[in-house]
Design a protein that fits this description.
5 helices, Protein SAAL1, single chain, mainly alpha
Length: about 110
């Protein structure tokens, strides 16, 4: 009988720890979502400020490529479509092929 009571008490302690752990995970997810939203806002503002010269330099140094742009677009769309479209317009002047490939990947962005 003592073992059953002890097990029951242990189970309730584990249950409370799981609930606390779950609350911590939910709070962490909430904070990560806020961080992601802030980063997306910052990135969208930066995309609107890029010039053709900035893009050419980014392409030359390998910072701008189809993979990085696709990753950014996946996180920015559809909320920041105006920023992405603005970026694509300037990118088209710097690298027509890359702009076309990105438009094919994201057909809602036809500029």
């Amino acid at each position: 009988m003592e073992g059953c009571g002890k097990r029951s008490a242990d189970d309730s302690k584990e249950s409370k720890q799981e609930e606390t752990g779950s609350a911590d995970v939910n709070e962490e997810d909430f904070h990560l979502k806020i961080l992601k939203d802030i980063c997306c806002e910052l990135l969208s503002n930066m995309l609107q400020e890029l010039t053709k010269e900035n893009m050419l330099e980014g392409l030359h140094q390998g910072h701008l490529n189809e993979q990085t742009c696709s990753c950014a677009f996946q996180n920015l769309l559809p909320l920041y479509s105006a920023s992405v479209e603005s970026f694509l317009e300037v990118l088209r002047e710097a690298d027509q092929t890359l702009a076309d490939n990105l438009e094919k990947r994201f057909p809602s962005l036809k500029v």
